[in-house]
Specification:
Layout lengths: L1 E7 L2 E7 L17 E5 L2 E5 L4 E6 L6 E2 L4 E7 L2 E6 L4 E6 L6 E2 L4 E5 L1
Antiparallel strand pairs: 1-2, 3-4, 4-11, 5-7, 5-10, 6-9, 7-8, 9-11
Length: 111
C-alpha cells in the first residue's frame, strides 16, 4: 500500500493506493472541468455537468487566458471551477447567476 498526496483546487488530499500488479501503458485523461465546442474562431465553454451557476467571473469584452476561472458551478453541494479552454475576448455570456444548467450546456463564448 502506498500513500500519496494529491492537490485539487488548492486542497490537499491523502490517498492510499494498493499495487496489485505493475504494467506499463498509457492513461488518457480528459479535462473534467471544461469542455469546448469550437465554432470557427470562437469557442463555447460548456458546463461539464448539471448544476447551478453560483458566479460568473468574467464580463463581455474581458480578455481571458486559457485556464483562467470564468465561472463557478455548484453540483452535488460542491463548488466547481469552470475554466477557459482558449485565450481570447469574452464575446457573450450565455447564463446568469442562479441559473440551473445541464451537462454540455453553453456558458460563455470566447473568440
Amino acid at each position: 500500500m502506498k500513500i500519496y498526496k494529491v492537490k485539487v483546487n488548492d486542497k490537499v488530499y491523502e490517498v492510499q493506493i494498493e499495487s496489485v500488479t505493475e504494467s506499463s501503458g498509457q492513461i488518457e485523461v480528459k479535462n473534467q472541468t471544461v469542455a469546448a465546442q469550437p465554432s470557427g474562431k470562437e469557442e463555447t465553454i460548456v458546463s461539464p455537468m448539471a448544476g447551478t451557476i453560483l458566479d460568473i467571473k468574467v464580463n463581455v469584452g474581458d480578455q481571458v487566458k486559457e485556464g483562467q476561472v470564468v465561472a463557478i458551478l455548484e453540483a452535488m453541494k460542491l463548488e466547481n471551477e469552470v475554466v477557459a479552454t482558449a485565450s481570447g475576448v469574452v464575446k457573450q455570456v450565455l447564463v446568469n447567476k442562479g441559473k440551473a444548467v445541464q451537462s454540455q450546456e453553453g456558458l460563455i463564448i470566447v473568440g
